[in-house]
Design brief:
GO terms for molecular function: electron transfer activity; metal ion binding; oxidoreductase activity, acting on diphenols and related substances as donors, oxygen as acceptor. By secondary structure, this protein is mainly alpha-helical. The protein has 14 helices and two strands. Helix 6 runs antiparallel to helix 7, helix 7 crosses helix 12 and helix 11 packs antiparallel against helix 12. The longest helix is centred in the middle third of the chain and has 32 residues. 45% of the residues are buried.
Length: 334
């Protein structure tokens, strides 16, 4: 395996980390109107991700930086062609981050309600648009001879891409609700478990539809292998949640999301940005990558620093592993 191919899969792994970790963040944010009965419930939900949400978001920064350094042509085409969609994702992430920090600054109900909706919308928009973006990348978009995107934002909102967006939205929502059941106790935990049972069934149907469509249109042997693992783990996660085994359910959901992302990258390989109008205009691993010298330096840097990042993040999750209840929320705090 040459360095360009290696970095294609490293980028895939970085997006796996981002979607698995920030995915349940999005799900928790979207679950606020479904799982909370009052402000204390909402504070419990927000506190489940309070210590880790910003750390989870750094994965998309690392993934974007790796994409820029390893595949500058891919980065340029993607970020110029999908500019408005990615800008909406960025604005949603900013709104969500601001909401976490400012929600508790004033005691008024109206003040908190505004920021609660900002958290909900700031979680739902990226969850939807990331799926739309990756579905379009796999499907291919119109490119000219200079690898510039020649379509519009509306062209990206095609049926296949919207199904991909709905799939990631539901996957992240269910992933987040399962995380709530894993991190809380009492009534919230029970409400989260029941909600995950209902949302999980819908997720299974929608995700299966998207994977089958992708498989028949763009599938490879590796795609079908990863897709099969994702499907089995998604069903297993639903069954474990129904039995009250939240830890197993959350772990299997993480594997579901991870293998689904790898399935999409397998369907894409060896292209990185297929041209739907003319295959000759497609970006591939070979014509979009940086020099071997650049990739060699990046490889050594990743080998040194990535284990440190993983160790630190694992330690953070271990420190904040305990369940939360309404009793953990001080009555006088706002």
């Amino acid at each position: 395996m040459d360095l360009a191919t290696l970095w294609f899969w490293i980028v895939a792994a970085l997006f796996v980390g981002y979607f698995v970790l920030d995915g349940f963040d999005f799900g928790v944010g979207m679950s606020l109107p479904f799982l909370s009965k009052d402000d204390t419930d909402r504070r419990v939900l927000i506190n489940t991700i309070g210590p880790v949400w910003d750390l989870n978001e750094t994965w998309v920064i690392v993934a974007g930086a790796a994409l820029f350094a390893a595949f500058p042509e891919w980065y340029a085409t993607l970020f110029s062609g999908f500019y408005l969609a990615l800008l909406l994702i960025l604005l949603a992430l900013i709104v969500r981050g601001v909401s976490f920090e400012y929600r508790h600054q004033r005691p008024e109900v109206e003040w908190k309600a505004r920021f609660d909706w900002m958290i909900i919308i700031g979680s739902a928009v990226p969850a939807l648009l990331w799926g739309v973006a990756f579905a379009n990348i796999v499907q291919g978009v119109p490119l000219d001879e200079g690898h510039n995107y020649t379509g519009t934002l509306l062209d990206l909102l095609n049926p296949y891409a919207l199904l991909g967006g709905l799939t990631t939205l539901l996957l992240f929502f269910t992933h987040g609700v399962v995380f709530v059941s894993l991190k809380t106790d009492g009534e919230i935990r029970e409400r989260a478990r029941k909600l995950a049972v209902r949302s999980g069934l819908i997720t299974i149907v929608v995700a299966a539809s998207f994977l089958v469509w992708t498989g028949f249109a763009f599938g490879t042997a590796w795609f079908w292998g990863f897709a099969a693992v994702a499907a089995l783990c998604l069903i297993g996660s639903w069954l474990m949640n129904a039995r009250g085994a939240e830890g197993w359910s959350f772990g299997l959901m993480a594997v579901t999301i991870g293998t689904a992302v790898l399935a999409l990258f397998s369907a894409l390989f060896p292209d990185v940005m297929p041209a739907s109008n003319d295959p000759a205009n497609s970006l591939t691993i070979a014509n979009a990558s940086s020099s071997d010298y650049t990739l060699t330096i990046m490889s050594w840097t990743a080998l040194i620093f990535l284990p440190l990042v993983l160790a630190y993040q694992g330690w953070t999750y271990w420190i904040f592993r305990k369940r939360l209840t309404r009793e953990h929320i001080p009555a006088a705090a706002h």
